[in-house]
């Protein structure tokens, strides 16, 4: 698209786009590193993820300030308005993703003390890979302004939910097998929940990008498949 | 509050506002071309002005929006070299038909200009002049009532009721513009054309006129030319975008300012033109 006549407006808009791209890359990295720290018992890496979160908080503040200023000074309309609106929404989602990754990193120490076996974290690792791929794809879509894959990406969130549900069952089984697993597994359960939530944020971003590009809502709502809230322990199960 | 995901909120707040398609067409232009001598200013424009709606005409300078507006009450007749072809109707009647009385047409289609242009007479005279020459008031009392009603309609009555005999030119710019609106509505027009009515006004006076436009919409059909995108977005229900004498697109204002179909509209309203 051609440039704005007012150069400063153009600069404001590209500032927003750049910051979102930066935040996206940062959030991805935080998530990937938090799970790696968990799998590899790497406390140092975990601590770095925790401090890294400040970068996202600061970026969110900058985007908020710039967006408010752009609205006040330029009264953006049409595609500009949708871009500013998307920047506000997406930055909020990315900041939350950072918080969730930080929360995973914070748990590494506690999980480490429990000396978990590899099998306990395998599921988390896999869930993370799937979610990270989702996040990467929506951020690519933001960068390239392409919406062809977005509804597919959003619908794939069901896979994450389904995997989370099965992970929930699995961790429950370990806890019932041996009560000494309870501390570790509870932490892991929170980690899994965090990752599942990151998937939801990726879905939000997909919807925001779709609106930004198309000026319309993404077609119909998908069914939710996180059934973990229905899981209960029946008498005799797991014995 | 009960929320139904398919229907929106139970009180209907989340459901779409009824489209302006439901309003009947008041004035309709079909294949309108306008020439100034050899130079063509408007090319094959088809544009409907709907009843009790505000239609905003936007576009860069020289795009033909004012020229089109002036076709709607045959103001262009006063320019000798100007020639209009195509069909413009009001309530289905051709306004360029030889049988049409232009003076009567301009009473039905009033106009407010960019710069407030009160007559160099009293406030009362400014408003009463039109009704008098059109014979709309039978008695002095009738005329006084009509003046009051018009000034009230233009939101000016309380400010001028004690000085109706003072010259209209002594009012502030914003008041003068409202006086011109009062003058326009005094002859009970059906349509009011406004050519950048707020461009000479400060923000407060602009806000008052915009508020007035929104009230006038209940009883009149309004077409407004404006250079302010925000004003078009605020006051109109339909927006028509002109460029180089062509009508680029016309749509509900909401759509035009959030998701316009045409690239030229997009580029113009976001400040990317040329």
UniProtKB/TrEMBL annotation, chain A:
Biological process, per Gene Ontology: intracellular phosphate ion homeostasis; negative regulation of phosphate metabolic process; phosphate ion transport
Record domain PhoU: where: 20-108, 124-209
Alphabetical UniProt keywords: Cytoplasm, Phosphate transport, Transport
Gene3D superfamilies membership: Phosphate transport system protein phou homolog 2, domain 2 (1.20.58.220)
Residues passing through the membrane, by range: none
GO CC terms, sorted: cytoplasm
Annotated stretches, region: Disordered: 220-239
Highest taxon of the lineage: Bacteria
Basic and acidic residues composition-biased segments: 220-232
Described purpose of this protein according to its UniProt entry: Plays a role in the regulation of phosphate uptake.
Assigned protein family: Belongs to the PhoU family.
Self-association and partners: Homodimer.
This protein's name: Phosphate-specific transport system accessory protein PhoU
Lineage of source species: Bacteria, Pseudomonadati, Pseudomonadota, Alphaproteobacteria, Hyphomicrobiales
From TrEMBL, chain B:
GO terms classed as biological process: phosphate ion transmembrane transport
Domain (ABC transporter) ranges: 27-269
Keywords: ATP-binding, Nucleotide-binding, Phosphate transport, Transport
GO cellular component, one term: membrane
InterPro entries per the UniProt record, alphabetical: AAA+_ATPase (IPR003593), ABC_transporter-like_ATP-bd (IPR003439), ABC_transporter-like_CS (IPR017871), P-loop_NTPase (IPR027417), PstB-like (IPR005670)
SMART domains named among the record's database cross-references: AAA
Family: Belongs to the ABC transporter superfamily.
Name of the protein described by the UniProt record: Phosphate ABC transporter ATP-binding protein
Organism: Oceaniradius stylonematis
């Amino acid at each position: 698209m051609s440039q704005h006549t007012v150069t400063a407006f153009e600069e404001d808009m590209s500032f927003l786009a750049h910051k979102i791209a930066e935040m996206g890359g940062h959030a991805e990295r935080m998530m990937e590193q938090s799970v790696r720290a968990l799998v590899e018992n790497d406390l140092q890496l975990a601590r770095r993820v925790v401090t890294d979160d400040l970068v996202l908080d600061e970026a969110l503040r900058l985007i908020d300030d710039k967006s408010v200023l752009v609205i006040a000074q330029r009264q953006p309309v049409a595609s500009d308005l949708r871009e500013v609106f998307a920047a506000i929404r997406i930055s909020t989602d990315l900041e939350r993703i950072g918080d969730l990754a930080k929360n995973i990193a914070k748990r590494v120490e506690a999980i480490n003390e429990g000396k978990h076996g590899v099998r306990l974290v395998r599921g988390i690792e896999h869930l993370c890979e799937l979610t990270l791929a989702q996040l990467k794809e929506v951020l690519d879509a933001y960068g390239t302004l392409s919406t062809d894959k977005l509804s597919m990406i959003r619908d794939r969130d069901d896979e994450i939910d389904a995997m989370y549900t099965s992970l929930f069952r699995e961790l429950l089984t370990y806890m019932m097998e041996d009560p000494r697993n309870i501390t570790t597994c509870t932490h892991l359960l929170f980690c899994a929940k965090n990752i599942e939530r990151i998937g939801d944020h990726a879905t939000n971003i997909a919807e925001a990008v779709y609106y930004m590009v198309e000026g319309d809502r993404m077609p119909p709502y998908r069914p939710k498949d996180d059934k973990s809230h229905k899981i209960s322990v029946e008498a005799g199960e797991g014995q | 509050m009960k929320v139904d995901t398919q229907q929106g909120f139970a009180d209907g707040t989340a459901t779409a506002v009824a489209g302006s398609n439901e309003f009947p067409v008041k004035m309709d232009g079909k294949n309108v071309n306008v020439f100034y001598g050899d130079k063509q200013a408007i090319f094959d424009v088809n544009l409907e002005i709907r009843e009790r709606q505000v239609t905003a005409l936007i576009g860069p300078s020289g795009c033909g929006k004012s020229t089109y507006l002036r076709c709607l009450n045959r103001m262009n007749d006063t320019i000798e070299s100007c020639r209009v072809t195509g069909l413009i109707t009001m309530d289905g009647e051709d306004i360029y038909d030889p049988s049409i009385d232009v003076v009567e047409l301009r009473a039905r289609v009033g106009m407010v200009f960019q710069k407030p242009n009160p007559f160099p007479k009293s406030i009362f005279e400014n408003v009463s002049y039109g009704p008098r020459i059109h014979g709309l008031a039978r008695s002095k009392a009738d005329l006084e009532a009509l003046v009051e009603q018009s000034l009230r309609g233009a939101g000016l009555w309380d400010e001028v009721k004690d000085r109706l005999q003072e010259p209209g030119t002594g009012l502030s710019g914003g008041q003068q513009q409202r006086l011109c609106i009062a003058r326009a509505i005094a002859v009970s027009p059906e349509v009011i054309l406004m050519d950048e009515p707020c461009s000479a006004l400060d923000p407060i006076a602009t806000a008052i006129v915009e508020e007035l436009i929104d009230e006038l919409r209940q009883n009149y059909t309004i077409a407004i030319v404006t250079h302010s995108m925000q004003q078009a977005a605020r006051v109109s229900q339909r927006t028509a975008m002109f460029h180089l004498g062509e009508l680029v697109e016309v749509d509900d204002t909401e759509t035009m300012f959030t998701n316009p179909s045409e690239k030229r509209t997009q580029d113009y309203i976001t400040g990317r033109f040329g």
